[in-house]
Amino acid sequence: MEKIKSPEESRKLLDKITFDLTRSIVKRDELTNFWYFLLIMFALVGLWGWGIQIRDGLGVSGMRDYVSWGMYIANFVFFVAVSLIGFLISSTLHLLKINWSKPISRVAEQVAIAAVALAGIIIINDMGRPDRFLNVFLHGRFASPIIWDVTVVITYLAISVLLFYLPLIPDLALLRDKSPDDIPKWKMKIYKVLALGWKGNAEQYKLVYHAMRVLMILIIPVGLSIHTVTSWLFAATLRSGWDTTIFGPYFVAGAFVAGVAAVIIVMYIYRVRYGLKDYFQDYHFNMMGKLFVFVCLVYLYFNINEFWVPGYKMKTAESIHLTNLFTGKYAGLFWSAQLFGLILPILLMVNRFFRKPVPITIISVFVLIASWFKRYLIVIPTLEHPFLPVQNVPANFQHYTPTSIEIMITLFSFMAAFLVVTVLAKMFPVITIWEYAEEKGIDREIISEPKNQTP
Amino acid sequence: MMRKIYLLLTLALFVAKQGMSQEWLVPDDQKNIKNPSGYTLENVKAGKNLYLVNCKSCHGDPGKHNGLPLVPPPPDLISDLMQNNTDGELFYKISHGRGGMPQFEKTISVDDRWRLINFIRNFNKANRPLLVEAPPKKAKLLASVNEVEKRVEVFAEVEDKNGAYIKLPDTEVKISAKKAFGNIPIGDILTNADGRGEYVIPETLIGDENGLVNIVVELGEGFITDKVVLDAAKVGQPKPTPKLIRKQVLWSTNDNVQTWLLLSYLGAVGAAWLAIGYVIFQIFKIWKLGKE
Amino acid sequence: MEKKSRRNFMKALGVSIGAAGVMGSSTILSSCSRVETTSGDTIKLLTSSGELVEVQKSALKPADMPTLTENQKRGREGLPGRKWVMVIDLSKCRNARQCMKACQNHHQLRPEQHHINVLQMQDADHTAPYYMPKPCQHCDNPPCTKVCPVNATFKREDGIVLIDNERCIGCRFCIAACPYSARVFNWFEPRDAEKYKGVVYNIEANVPQKKGTISKCLFSADRLRDGKLPSCVSACPNGVYWFGDQNEDAVTNGTTHETTSFSKIIEENAGYTLMEELGTKPRVYYLPPKDRAFPFQGTIEENHS
């Protein structure tokens, strides 16, 4: 925390901060409209595809009796993975009293909310009978990992929303009291309601801090569970490639890689688009880069375990699976994902240069794409090689190829996730103003005072 | 629909090609091998027993044309299709099989295969049949079960030339027990000079849950008679019905959910949502403070 | 002919005959279990061999017709005192596929859907190839029922693993969990969906099949209730299948109708279960393909593991 400034200085600085951080809310140009148009178009096309799927059955996908989980499940795992970043940045790093990550918290929560919400939607989309979704609650079977997954996804979503909302309350009050005049009226109304009559007195701050702390501790087991349970959907079966004990931590480690990449990309977009160079500084990218290298190394360690141990033994079924990945049909995809999603990023980001905003964002894009394909490689090749031979069925039962409808719906999920992030950014400041201001040495009372109250 | 017809057609053609249209050719050197075993009553009888075990299920009873309705149909023993084969051809076909006809090369010895052929020749018009099936006689069969001593007592009579019933000596009576889908043979007895017989039920016989057995008693071939079914005789061991679904087991439904699992799940979910509820309550408190 | 009728004879038939000779064959009618009223004087009946017949209503008088709820309830309980077991004699199989045909008929399956599938197997590079009919193994430690999120698939006390297609949400976790690839999914409208429209669902045959749900072999549980052998067992022309109640230690051959001791046939032929190392405890036993009745004439494909 910087040293306390004089009230005059403080007010000026606070005005500037507020001005900068509300730019995302105010800014609405051609590009914004085009972006919305693009997102909504894609979302509609995806929904149309979903309509066809509901009418004709899940058979419009490339999935069949042997490869019965395809791109949807891979995509679901990907989104659950990305959502895990909320737990890492806004809880774990906070509890460890690491300060540099504070301005990034809200970005991480935005990404977490969008990803986990979409994960929930995708899984309904993968059901043969989405009309019977309520059966999950009416007839839920306690011993099934799917029930655990549903429970934990809902819980995680709730915690993420609260963790997004709580630090937002003082900001909403601040915007309500002294926002720039160009914020639309309807947004101001929403702020007024959501600010809950915040006065900024000590008791209220205490409550916010207290509730935040409860959530930060709570999200640790829930966050770990969400991805561990998701890994159990695979590890609870007998199939080679899934039947492994390290799937839980392996998934969690992989999730951090994907999540850090997603957050860096969103940070960079905000930095450029909303002129937040002074907030998402090179320093933050540098630190995120270090974190990135660290989680990548952990993930690399698990990858080595995951492939080396069975690869050393080459049991019959395992060897078919591994050969398929290493030198077979999926070799290209597998080695690209390992190279561009893990090995090259580590080698590059060890250098300071590659932790600068532009290079690290480019690396993040590669890592994010590789992470998606990594999930694809976890789900599909295993199913293509069951224990017993695949016989007396048409050729499309033996090998999985996604259909255009699947790709459409998957694109829809990406676009919908972007849409959620965009709406959140357009509605609320992307950095917690009051927290940032306090860091800069501005007194709480000045933050809480009404707009035109200059002595 | 067209596809279906097409499919059927192909299937029919395929089957036909497998069996009917194509003649079953036997190599010339095999064709003319002579039956090394003699056409004797002993061999024919042995052949008959082999036939009953290995062939009857498809080829049916000789002369009754009651083989299984397969494509191509397994021919009856008296048919020309069967009898026009040379001994060598029959031997080859029995040994190697084709299509629906199994290969008996590994399951029936060479000598037995030749004995089987002797039995087939018993129905050749050119031969004098050695094994003459007498016209079936009318018979009466009475049976009762002694539950205390676990015995089945049998009395058999046969109709004589004058239409009167006289006791039937030295005749095989088959005893079997009813099971879910058929009767399992449990023993044979011979009637004595008085037409009576006694069968001691083995200790190991399994009945229903209460040890009740439905015992079926019947005369062998050559008699026209009804089976006797001794219903619900308490002569067997009670059938064990071990419980498959234990009270608490992971793979069963919620009714048998394991307590520790249920408690862990509910505990974890309850704790998480309690904490969430607590946080929401804090938010409520913030709102209240704001109103003051 | 039998002098006395069998005790405890199954009475769970859907309809009894009021007038004989209407259908020509009374056996078809006596095995009909599901009834659906259509227009006027005719009625749609679903025989347990999967045929849909339409007959004069006056020919029938309904008796003990289970409603959907009752059907689901009794379908979950199973047949008391039984523990069904199947023995498959690999030395007798010649890939005739009559079992597959009868099964697809009974359970209204599309040609690519197999409750039972005759596989061409070879265990290692130089071991003998053989044909292996593969139904659901009805495991006593079923990995599939373990993962079901809605209690839609379950194991009954008589050993059968069953599916309630009115409950299933189509998540396909059970397909992923089954190491025997025994389960199939209705990716599209099921076969003849129009034809069977309005026919009341029967949980013990999974018919009519429901779009977007799982289906699999269920040992023809509806036929067992009627005292009949499963469709595949009855259809086999080569005596491959033995089926019976393990509790009474007896199995009956579907082709020859010969009945023998289950433990004896397993012991004498060194019977085994499939992939026993997985701990699934199958209820389907195999007799090794030794002294084969038919030579192997198939092709062994690459996609083998």
Task: Report on the architecture of this protein.
The complex is a heterotrimer of chains A (455), B (292) and C (305). With 455 residues, chain A is mainly α. Chain A has a single domain (7-384, 396-444), classed as Formate dehydrogenase/DMSO reductase domain (Formate dehydrogenase/DMSO reductase fold). In chain A, 71% of the residues lie in helices and 0% in strands. Chain A has helices at residues 7-21, 23-26, 30-56, 71-83, 85-95, 105-125, 135-138, 145-165, 168-178, 185-194, 202-235, 247-273, 282-313, 316-326, 331-349, 357-384, 404-427, 433-439, 444-448. Chain A is globular. The two termini of chain A are 26 Å apart. Chain B is 34% helix and 20% strand. Chain B is built from eight helices and nine strands. Chain B has helices at residues 2-18, 28-31, 41-54, 56-59, 80-83, 87-96, 110-121, 259-291, and strands at residues 137-146, 151-159, 165-167, 172-178, 183-190, 196-200, 212-219, 223-224, 228-234. In chain B, the strands form two sheets. In chain B, strands 1, 2, 3, 6 and 8 form a five-stranded mixed sheet that branches. Chain B has a four-stranded antiparallel sheet with strand order 5-4-7-9, with no helix packed on it. In chain B, a hairpin with a 4-residue loop joins strand 1 (137-146) and strand 2. Chain C has a five-stranded mixed sheet with strand order 15-14-13-6-16. Chain C has a three-stranded antiparallel sheet with strand order 2-3-4, with no helix packed on it. In chain C, strands 1-5 form a two-stranded antiparallel ribbon. The relative contact order of chain C is 0.19. Chain C has 305 residues and is an alpha+beta fold. Chain C is 17% helix and 21% strand. Chain C has two domains: 15-65, no CATH class; 82-287, 2-Layer Sandwich (Alpha-Beta Plaits), CATH 3.30.70. Classes of the chains: A mainly alpha (455), B alpha+beta (292), C alpha+beta (305).
Number of discrete domains of chain A: 1
| Basic shape of chain A | globular
| Percent helix of chain B | 25-40%
State mean pLDDT of chain A (0 to 100 scale).
92
Proportion of residues in extended strands of chain B? 15-25%
Number of helices of chain A: 19
Specify which chain pair forms the largest interface: A-C, 51 and 48 residues
Q: Name the assembly state.
A: heterotrimer
